[in-house]
Design goal:
globular; MetI-like fold; 0% strand; 273 residues
């Protein structure tokens, strides 16, 4: 009878238990907060320019018990409206230009020039055209969301493998079937990239919209902190903007994973490989 070797009877090694990814993501912010707290408390930075993180946390608590909810709701409603309008138009024009070279010849030169205009350059024109009410703010945010969605959408359509389109023609798909069964699924990863970029730009354009002619919102809170020489309020507003931007991007990322769970893509190598 053959004697089993030690290599065959040796128990399998236990999997390594590393630090969870979520905790790893907190390492850098915690380090920055600790360093800033130590530097400010040591007097190396003046508190009127850079308050200690603990003071900013107290300011956040005070704002949370007061007007913070009003400002957050105002900013969220503007970003949501502007993003839906801008992203929707961006997807429509991206499909038009991506599928038609004639549409590209007419539209792309104009869009290339418009997307180079800085956000603040739109503000005086929109105020003259639309006044200081909500419409001008939503339109400015929609402009910010439009171009990333449009550019990434056109690129996603044009990067589709030509052989996929030829397969559709072999099966005699009409234009509608070709779009819905081949072009749209193949372009979805690029479209989601555009949507996430457009959402980030919507938050950036929100600040430009609310810094001028606004009575509520996180941009107004930033302006109020600057005018009253309260850097703790300014930093508190920036932190809230960062959290809201991260949460909204996370929601889109979850939606992307659910809709694109059929992909078998490279996700990066783990430690020790």
């Amino acid at each position: 009878m053959a004697i089993p070797s030690k290599s065959l009877t040796r128990p399998a090694p236990l999997p390594r238990r590393g630090v969870p990814s979520r905790l790893k993501g907190l390492a850098l912010p915690v380090l920055i907060i600790a360093v800033l707290e130590a530097v400010v408390r040591a007097g190396w930075l003046p508190a009127y320019q850079m308050p200690a993180p603990s003071d900013v946390a107290l300011t956040l608590l005070d704002l949370a018990q007061g007007p913070l909810a009003k400002h957050v709701l105002a900013s969220l409603s503007r970003v949501l409206a502007g993003f839906v309008i801008g992203a929707g138009l961006g997807l429509v024009f991206a499909a038009w230009v991506g599928l038609s070279r004639e549409a590209e010849a007419y539209l792309e030169p104009t869009f290339a020039g418009l997307r180079a205009i800085p956000s603040l350059a739109w503000v005086p024109l929109l105020l003259l055209w639309l006044g200081i009410d909500e419409t001008s703010k939503v339109v400015l945010i929609a402009i910010g969301a439009f171009f990333p969605v449009y550019v990434n959408g056109v690129a996603a359509i044009r990067d589709i493998d030509r052989r996929l389109v030829e397969v559709g023609r072999v099966f005699r798909f009409n234009r509608r079937q070709l779009v819905w069964r081949i072009l749209l699924p193949a372009a979805m990863p690029g479209l989601f990239t555009g949507l996430r970029s457009g959402l980030s730009m919507a938050w950036m354009f929100l600040v430009a919209a609310e810094l001028i002619a606004a009575t509520k919102g996180l941009g107004y809170l930033l302006s109020d902190g600057r005018e009253t020489s309260r850097p703790d309020i300014v930093l508190a507003a920036i932190i809230v903007l960062a959290v809201l931007g991260k949460v909204s991007d996370r929601l889109l990322a979850v939606l992307e994973r659910r809709w694109l769970n059929w992909r078998d893509t490279f996700t990066g190598e783990g430690p020790g490989r």
